[in-house]
Amino acid sequence: MSPPDDHIPAPPDLPSYTVEDAVEAPAPEKRRNRDALERHAGTGLVRHNVGLEEGIDPDAAKVVRRLERGGHEAYLVGGCVRDLLLGGKPKDFDIATSARPEDVRSLFRNCRVIGRRFRLAHILFGGGKVIEVATFRRNPAMEAPEEESSEVFDDLLIRSDNVFGEAHEDALRRDFTMNALFYDLDRHQVLDWCGGMQDVQHRTIHTIGEPITRFREDPIRILRAIKFAARLDLGIAPDVYDAMVSTREDLAKAARPRLFEEILRLLRGGAAHRSMWLLWETGAMSVMLPELAAFLDDDEATDGGGSRLFRTMDAIDSMTKARGRPLDDIALWTLLLKEPLDEACDGERDKIHAASEFLDPVIERVAVPRRIADGVRRIVAILPRLAAGKAGRFARTDLIIPALDVLEAELLANGRSTDAVHKMRAGHVAAPGRSASSRPPAYRDVRGPRQRRGAE
Ligand code: ATP
Ligand code: MG
Q1: pTM of the predicted model, to two decimals?
Q2: Active-site residue flag, 175
Q3: 3-class state of residue 22 by DSSP
Q4: DSSP letter assigned to residue 104
Q5: 277-316, pLDDT tens digit by residue?
Q6: Minimal-distance CA residue to ligand 1 atom 7
Q7: Structural domain boundaries of the chain?
């Protein structure tokens, strides 16, 4: 087995920028401009002049402008600013604002306020586009009074992060420095309170503040670091990497549906190979999916099973890139678990019982929904017949689509022709009354995981 290609590309060709003093004497012309400059005085803000307009979604820009006209502060934040600076195409555009959710709702007709504790506004546009608007919040962990007992500090886990705050506090509550950059559309400036711009230039993941504390507060950040490193081909700062390794056991305390969702994100992003490698190497896999980690640990005993699994991850990545969208969730979970599941059932007389013995603890530990677990079980059972072109009645079930994806990935991983799968798929899609995808609509996709964040 060899690690994924670790080649770190040269720093991106970022637009040149200059650093201005946050409290620079304001130009006399506009009162509003002066307010904005004074607003962040004393917060340690560094402004970078960078023109990112070209890549910005016009609807997101409209939302920012309307919030500003309504008398609020509003910026583009997080992943979209990071991705634009790295020269990538953002998946979505998020906005942070001083406006409260109800203020946002009063400004937009096409607005839904979602979430009970972590309340967010979703502004809906045509084609299923959602612009998420979140009120500035601060990290409640920073509220803890100094005399608080050490017991409290043993458990840093954040259970609610719904405390409103100022722009700079909102930046500092975020996970990684490159995720905490705000973009000011009026001044064409990136606002940087924690050195994120430099880390983007060095393509290195740094936590905001002390890494062990930040991972203890929310262990899901360990998986997020892996996701960004893998998907964006970034390095992880050594102290951050060490902290990921030393706090990995805390993943057992994280909300289980979030673990499930983040594992899927690792598989969906076109970098499943690098993600699974890092997950295994940091030991995070042995906390969440010990069956899989043990399988990878012993490549000899499994007769090259680990190498096969990583080739399968490569196949997922090439299919994701070719389609421009991720594989079905059931297909992804099947491909992840199939090798160790086959091993667990090998030589067992009661294969159904052996499969349950293997899957039940996984389902429990990372909250795999029944629908997905049953899909995995059924696809693994039917796969040998499907490979022989004998799908029978199974071809009339919704599971045929993910099952064909699994078969295609397996054939690709073994360097074999996938023509037969394409033929079966073409025949299947042509059949009347069948849809080509069983994925839920885009809006539900956005809501689920976001609503859960921080609320548990
Ligand atoms: P992606 O491109 O995968 O959407 P993203 O950075 O936009 O990446 P999101 O999950 O959409 O990630 O979150 C939006 C922003 O919210 C992040 O950029 C980060 O600033 C903040 N954030 C998300 N999750 C956490 C977390 N667990 N802890 C702290 N901040 C977080
Ligand atoms: Mg995002």
Answers
A1: 0.86
A2: yes
A3: coil
A4: H
A5: 999 999 999 999 999 999 999 877 778 889 999 999 999 9
A6: 79
A7: 27-202, 266-443
Distance 251 CA to ligand 2 centre (A): 22
C-alpha distances (whole Å) from 42 to each of 31, 73, 197, 248 are 19, 17, 19, 36
Q: Which helix (H) or strand (E) holds 195?
A: none
State how far the Cα of 43 lies from the Cα of 38, in Å rounded to an integer. Answer: 10
For tokens 């006209």, name the residue.
69
Within 6 Å (CB) of ligand 1, which residues are found? 78-79, 91, 94, 174-175, 179-180, 218, 220-221, 453
DSSP per residue, 219-257: THHHHHHHHHHHHHT-EE-HHHHHHHHHTGGGGGGS-HH
Task: Give me the DSSP letters along 36-94.
Answer: HHHHTTTTT-EEEE---GGGS-HHHHHHHHHHHHTT--EEEETHHHHHHHTT---S--E
The 10s digit of each residue's pLDDT in 357-387 is: 999 999 999 999 999 999 999 999 899 999 9
What's the CA gap between 394 and 317, in Å, rounded? 27
Burial of residue 43, with CB atoms counted within 10 A of its CB: 0-12 exposed, 13-18 middle, 19 or more buried: middle
> Token pair of 446, please?
């956005």
Supply the CATH classification number for the domain 27-202: 3.30.460.10
Whose CA is closest to atom 5 on ligand 1?
79
d(CA 315, CA 408): 8
Let me know the angle formed at the C-alpha of 387 by 382 and 389, rounded to the nearest 5 degrees. Answer: 95
Q: Is 90 left (phi over 0), alpha (psi -120 to 50) or beta?
A: beta
- Is the pLDDT reported for residue 245 higher than 80? yes
